Structure formats: C-alpha cells, structure tokens
Amino acid sequence: MGGVPSVPTDPTRRLQVIGAGFSRTGTVSMNMALEKLLDGPAMHGGTQILGREDAYLRLWSRVFDAKIKGDKELTLKLLREATAGFVAITDVPGNCFIPELQELYPEVVVIVVTRDKHKWFKSIEMIVDVSSPWWLRYFLAPVPGWRWLPYMIDYFTKVEGERLPGPLNAGKHKSDTLDVHNTWVKNHTPADKFHAVELKDGWAPLCRILNKPIPDEPFPRANDADAVAELSRRIFVQTLLVWAEDG
After folding, report:
1. Counting beta carbons within 10 angstroms of the beta carbon of residue 126, is it exposed (0 to 12), middle (13 to 18) or buried (19 or more)?
2. Helix (H, G, I), strand (E, B) or coil at 18
3. Angstrom distance (rounded) from CA 242 to CA 116
C-alpha cells in the first residue's frame, strides 16, 4: 500500500511520533513525510502487513492476542519488540495500541489527521469491500505473510470496534467514525502531546509540531487508492499461482 516496507537496522532508535490518523486519511503520505523529517524508518501498517516476513506478522498476532486476553505485561513486551527501531508509526495496527505505545514511549507525539468525513467514508468503503470476503482466510492460507491478513482484519475490528460507534457500514454511524476516532485519541493523550493536522496544508504544520525545518521538496502525495487496487490484483494472481503449484 505504501511501497516497500521499512525495516529498522538500529533497534535502539525510539518511537517519536504516532501518526494516529484513521485509515484512509493519507496515512501513506504521512508515513513518507515522517520518514523524511525524522530521518529514520517509519512503520505504515498496511505496508508492513502486506510486505513483511511471516515471523513479523506472527509477532503482531501475538501482540493482539495478549491485549485481547488482558495481559498488559506481555502486551507491552511484545509491542516493544514489534516497534523497536522505528521512529514513527502510522495507521493500524498502531492505532489499536495508542495508550500502550504512549506508556512505552512517554516522549512520543500523537498526531491525528482531519478531513471531510463524508469524503473519507467514500474512500474507506473500497478497503472494506476488498478486505472482508468470508473466503479470504482460506484463499490466503498457503501464502506466508499474506495468510495473516484476514486475522489482522479481525483483530482491528475487535479492538477498534470497542471504541467506535459501530461497523463502518452501520448506517448513520458510518461517517461519524472519523470524528469519534479523533476525539477518542485526544481524550487518551496528554494535551501537550496531542496535535491535529490537515495534510492539504503540506509540510508547515508537521514541521512546526516537530520543530524541524521545512524540506526543500514537495510534500509527499501517495495515490493510495490506485496502490490498493494494484496490490489486490497482485495478491490474487500470486496466490492463485501458489495454489496451482501446490495442486
């Protein structure tokens, strides 16, 4: 979704920013901008989930299992392992662990993204449609890495569903989800660490928040809709090939 996933090489680097914008609020563009400003690897959830090795996805599954079972000590231990070396995180799964990430990294800054909620919902409908078929877990089962995608979707739905107004297609609630999410993040973040931006404003708001000079280049603008469509086609074709080889 966001190109090639970043893989940290220095595990001592610490998380500086949680890009807490809900999915489809320009999380890929935000991720690219944070990598530039912080000069380090940022974790965009969708890119990591669809581009990293099987063991890393298994690790995130264990993080979710620990959280859902209420084992805080194990959750923090595994979450620290999953985020070691990253300087920023955007989108899910990070959005499912905002209080825990703030506990692990007390100095972290939390930034949500605002946009027209009705336009946002039209955008996210595409993700819901392509990621929710009942047969997906069986279809992807023989493919390392991608086989975890349906389970991650289940985890996201369970954890985020506890604080959102209802399923993304739940009638009147559908366009309220973005506002509810941003309010929830604000209420669970110290006032001096919480910020809201609109990506249409470019570099200036982020640079002001992070006390960084404005780069002498355009703000990154990723066409995530086209990337999702292309990735969906690639996953389908490559998975069919795996099935054919196994057959």
Report:
1. middle
2. strand
3. 41
pLDDT of residue 136: 77
Above 70 in pLDDT, residue 17? yes
Say whether pTM exceeds 0.70.
yes
Adjacent-strand bridge partners of 190? none
Structural domains for the chain: 17-211+221-246 (3.40.50.300)
As a whole number of angstroms, the distance between CA 217 and CA 52 comes to 29
Sign of the CA dihedral 51, 55, 59, 65?
A: positive
- Phi, psi (5° rounding) for residue 106? -60, -20
Q: Return the beta strands (E) in 35-179 as ranges.
A: 42-44, 88-90, 109-113
d(CA 100, CA 118): 30
Read off the amino acid at residue 236: F
